[in-house]
Amino acid sequence: MGRRLLPWIAAGLLALPAWGFDAAHTLPATGTVELAFTPDEAADRRVIRAIDGARRQVLVQAFSFTHEKIADALIRAKQRGVAVEIIADAEQTEKIPTTQIPRLAAARIPVYLDREHGAAHNKVMVVDLGDPQAAVVTGSYNFTHAAQYRNAENLLVLRGNPPLTEAYVRNWQRHRLHALPYNPRP
């Protein structure tokens, strides 16, 4: 883009194309970034540490969820009074025999299934919205045994960036509006 166009863009007289810069999704880089790459690094321990540190809330979006220890951490959080809610991909939940979703629901954690999309492919946890050190956990890492021990995955734990945390919560809420309560099959 030539320098001659920049004053027009700055003045709001020339819109950028849809594929270009979107100021609504550009946030300042603040806080800390913790990262892990599997299978060599313990991404699961970083997820569990974030959950174990939760004081008020953990919101989860999961494509596949088979990792027992991460499920255990969410159940512990619920038992100590943390509000835990999960949105899971419907097809993965119904097809994978080792899914932890029924166990999480049995622990009285509200679980919702997202059938609105070809794949509800988000892998996100938001911990303690409103806290200065609130965390967003995201990356390619599914909350699965395979993601930790067999796959090449990445995980980020982003803390101390309130606008980022709020954006992820708004996205979670947008998907919660169309997700339906999980009802285990008899």
Features:
7 helices; alpha+beta; 186 residues; Endonuclease, Chain A; 8-stranded mixed beta sheet; 8 strands; globular
**Judging from the principal axes of the Cα atoms, what is the shape?**
globular
- Would you list the SSEs in sequence order as H and E? HEHEHEHHEEEHEHE
Number of strands: 8
Biggest sheet architecture:
8 strands, mixed
Counted by DSSP, the helix tally is 7
Q: Percentage of helical residues?
A: 25-40%
Mean pLDDT: 89
Describe this structure in words.
With 186 residues, the chain is an alpha+beta fold. The protein has helices at 6-10, 43-52, 68-79, 90-95, 101-106, 145-149, 162-176; strands spanning 32-38, 57-62, 83-89, 111-114, 124-127, 135-139, 153-159, 180-181. It has a single domain (30-181), classed as Endonuclease Chain A (Endonuclease, Chain A), CATH 3.30.870.10. It has seven helices and eight strands; from the N terminus they run αβαβαβααβββαβαβ. Strands 1-7-6-5-2-3-4-8 form an eight-stranded mixed β-sheet, sandwiched between helices. It starts with 5 loop residues before the first helix and ends in a 5-residue tail after the last strand. Residues 1-21 have low confidence and may be disordered.
